[in-house]
């Protein structure tokens, strides 16, 4: 099964498509699919479509990366992002009830092509980690002088502070 030529539009033509397995490969410009700011690398998509006369079953793998600022050290870094999702496309609501609501789309019987843009955009956004760290052991900034401990050290006296005790300390300071 050879993937089709790379396509910039995240659309799969289904009208006239034979039943069976079909492979697709896409490479989309992030801004063309509504991903702005942090996103500047192509969004690479591998999709497999299993078509029967009653439904279409799509599996999608997405690879891209985005540029972020570290939550802890403010260092800029590139974060690879991957996502995977499955989607059923069915022709009526009754059939759709068999599947989890976020894994099924109802389409009209005369649908010409499946537009994957919205699903792929959402999956990419969901793949962004909640905590953005430039590296696993990011040392962060010195709370006193702001030195970036990933790159330099500073002479500030290290204050031994354990966040678990800070509440207690606040009480004692009163
Ligand atoms: Zn960092
Ligand atoms: Zn310091």
What does this 3D model show about the protein?
With 174 residues, the protein is α+β, with helices and mostly antiparallel strands. Strand 4 and strand 5 form a beta hairpin. It contains three helices and seven strands; from the N terminus they run βββββαββαα. A five-stranded mixed β-sheet has the order 2-3-4-5-6. A two-stranded antiparallel sheet has the order 1-7. One zinc ion binds next to loops.
End-to-end separation: 72 Å
Q: Whole-number radius of gyration? A: 24 Å
Give the SSE string: EEEEEHEEHH
- Give the integer mean of the pLDDT values: 90
Biggest sheet strand line-up = 2-3-4-5-6
Number of strands: 7
Bound small molecules, which ones? zinc ion
Low-pLDDT regions: none
Percent range for β-strand residues: 25-35%
Largest sheet: number of strands, sense, barrel closure: 5 strands, mixed
Q: What class do helices, strands and sheet pairing give?
A: alpha+beta
Tell me the domain tally.
2
Number of helices: 3
Oligomer: single chain
Percent helix, as a range, is: 10-25%
Query: What is the general shape?
Result: elongated
């Amino acid at each position: 099964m050879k993937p089709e030529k790379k396509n910039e539009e995240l659309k799969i033509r289904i009208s006239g498509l034979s039943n069976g397995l079909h492979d697709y490969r896409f490479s989309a410009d992030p801004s063309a699919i509504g991903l702005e700011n942090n996103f500047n690398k192509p969004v690479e998509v591998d999709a497999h479509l299993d078509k029967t006369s009653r439904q279409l079953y799509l599996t999608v793998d997405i690879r891209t990366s985005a540029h972020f600022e570290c939550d802890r050290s403010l260092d800029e870094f590139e974060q690879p992002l991957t996502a995977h999702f499955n989607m059923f496309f069915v022709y009526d609501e009754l059939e759709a009830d068999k599947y989890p609501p976020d894994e099924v789309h109802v389409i009209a019987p005369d649908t010409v092509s499946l537009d994957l843009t919205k699903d792929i955009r959402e999956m990419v956004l969901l793949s962004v980690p909640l905590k953005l760290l430039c590296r696993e052991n990011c040392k962060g900034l010195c709370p006193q002088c702001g030195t970036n401990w990933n790159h330099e050290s500073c002479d500030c006296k290290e204050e031994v502070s354990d966040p678990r005790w800070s509440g207690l300390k606040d009480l004692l300071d009163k």
